[in-house]
Amino acid sequence: MTQDIFGQETSLSCAISQQHWDAVQMGVLAHSASTADHLGALLNTAPDFALAQAIKGISLLMLGRRELLPMAQDALQAAQLGYDAALPRERKYIEALAAWLDGQPSRAIERMEQVLAVDPCDSLAMKLSHGIRFILGDAKGMRASVERVLPAYAPDHAGRGYLLGCHAFALEETGAYERAGITGRQALWLAPDDAWGLHAVAHVHDMTGDASAGLRWLNGREQAWAHCNNFRYHVWWHKALMHLDLGQTDQALALYDTEVRKDKTDDYRDISNATSLLMRLELEGVAVGNRWQELSELCASRTEDGSLIFADLHYLMALAGPDHKTESRRLILRIHADARQRDTEAQQRMATPGCGAALGLEAFGEGNYTQAFAHLSGVRASLHLAGGSHAQRDVFERMTIDAGLRCGAFDTVEHILNDRRAKRGGNDDNYALARRALIAAARSDTEHGAETQPEAEFGGKMPPVRQEDAIPVAPTLRAR
Fold first, then answer.
1. pLDDT of amino acid 456
2. Which one, of 283, 267, 214, lies nearest residue 68 by Cα?
3. CA 39 → CA 19, 307, 423, distances in Å?
4. What sign for the dihedral angle of Cα 17, 23, 25, 31?
5. CA nearest 430: which of 205, 267, 227, 255?
6. How far apart are CA 59 and CA 101, in angstroms?
7. Residue 361 buriedness (CB in 10 A; 0-12 / 13-18 / 19+)
8. Among 237, 355, 262, which Cα is nearest to 306's?
9. Are 50 and 83 a contacting pair, CB within 8 Å?
10. Cα–Cα distances in Å, from 466 out to 183, 205, 270, 364, 471?
11. Which residue pairs from 181-186 have beta carbons closer than 8 angstroms and sit at least 24 positions apart in sequence?
């Protein structure tokens, strides 16, 4: 047996294999692009190391792709062959993979928490519990899990910086914005390559409506995410959102082309970055050219996947509209078919919030804003179950608000805007301020006896909403 970088015993006996295993663990924590290479090298030198096989399988499941399930099953079979020789802690990882493959990722979390109950400084188990909870939309669980193990970490523990990065993100997702910002900065001090902690601070700036400070935070820190796997595209996405909030749409589009969609992958996380950014731009009246085309073509081949509702909804965002009615309808019917089964946790989320959200996106794409608003507003309370972050899910919130404006539901939209502001620490971003101005203008017209046409009346130039950060772009509020 050997000891890993966190001081824990492993069933490995080879020093070279142990070096690869340490690199795998640190790579997972840092979202490093080199992690897969180290895992491959480890499995070449120690193919019987059951824990590595389990991590391979769990990593495949995190990619949210149906076609990777057979590979994850093969990894489980290989891991189970070494189950008896594995240490008790290592066996929990194998059991976690088996639970997730059985359609119960929450049971996989339980296995990771069992590891942490005995070995609270197992940073890999901490990160996996955090990551699976993120996929399931369990922000409170993310925070509680990290805070249970936090006291056990010595200042010089190799995983402490990454633990703080996870804590920062969990604090932000549960509304503790000031603490999140401080903790995220501490994470970067200890682990300069902790892109998760860096991006947690970016989330704080998003949620508090301070895009200028967010850009100052990210500018000059590119090395903190340059080493990343496709997570680096997501950090660039955050930067593009900040430019958009400041009305700097040319910069947002430039980042879309050069960074966010630098590689035209169909990874659902990359698709979600792209579709949500394009939708935000279009809601602000920005012409995005033919950028939807390559996304629609990729998403048309993902209609039967069904791994994650978060992924399906972003595929649908690229397909909804007159040009891809067959594909969007196929995806919606499949979501509803999965929802009727409800055998797995993924299918349960297809039912709630999936079915209502899917119908809302379809109606929005068809220009039926009354139906879109009814469906999308109806799933607001359960949308967190789709997974992702507040910032990622905000595109659905914006579509809900804009659908409500287009169908004239001003009072209800104002209530949603107020609720959105309350969840953001009492702050409105420029998007919200612009919509409040639209509502005020519509009410003023009504008071002065002007006839209003809610779906067409908001095509004029918006007045400045902030003296220092005015939006020069008017929401056209038209369907694409």
1. 37
2. 267
3. 11, 24, 40
4. negative
5. 205
6. 12
7. buried
8. 355
9. yes
10. 30, 17, 32, 29, 8
11. 186/161
CA distance 323 to 331: 14
Query: For each successive 10 residues of the chain (480 residues), what is the average pLDDT?
Result: 93 95 98 98 96 98 98 98 97 98 98 98 98 98 98 97 98 98 98 98 97 98 97 98 98 98 97 98 96 97 97 97 95 98 96 98 96 98 98 98 96 98 96 96 80 42 28 36
State whether residue 406 is helix, strand or coil: helix
| pLDDT at position 57 | 98
Contact 21, 11 (CB under 8 A): no
In terms of C-beta distances under 8 Å and separation of at least 24 residues, what long-range contacts does 291-294 make, across chains too?
291/256, 291/261, 292/318, 292/480, 294/261, 294/264
Residues 345, 318 contacting (CB under 8 angstroms): no
d(CA 5, CA 366): 54
Query: pTM value?
Result: 0.93
Q: What is the pLDDT of residue 478?
A: 34
Alpha carbon distance 303, 103 (integer Å): 19
CA distances from 219 to 47, 274, 447, 474, 478 (A): 42, 21, 46, 27, 34
Which amino acid, residue 166?
Answer: C
The tokens describing 324, both together, are 């891809």
Q: Are 175 and 423 within 8 A, CB to CB?
A: yes
Show the beta-strand stretches assigned E in 230-322. none
What is the rounded CA–CA span in Å between residue 180 and residue 170?
Answer: 8
pLDDT at 73: 98
Q: Going by DSSP bridges, is the β-strand pair 9-10/2-3 parallel, antiparallel, or unpaired?
A: antiparallel
Torsion of CA 37, 42, 44, 48, to 10 degrees: -140
Distances (CA, A) of 343 to 16, 136, 277: 43, 16, 33
b/e string for 428-453 if b means 16 or more Cβ within 10 A? bbbbbbbbbbbbebbeeeeeeeeeee
Please tell me the predicted confidence (pLDDT) of residue 299: 98
**Residue 229: both structure tokens together:** 């796997």
CB 146 within 8 A of CB 179: no
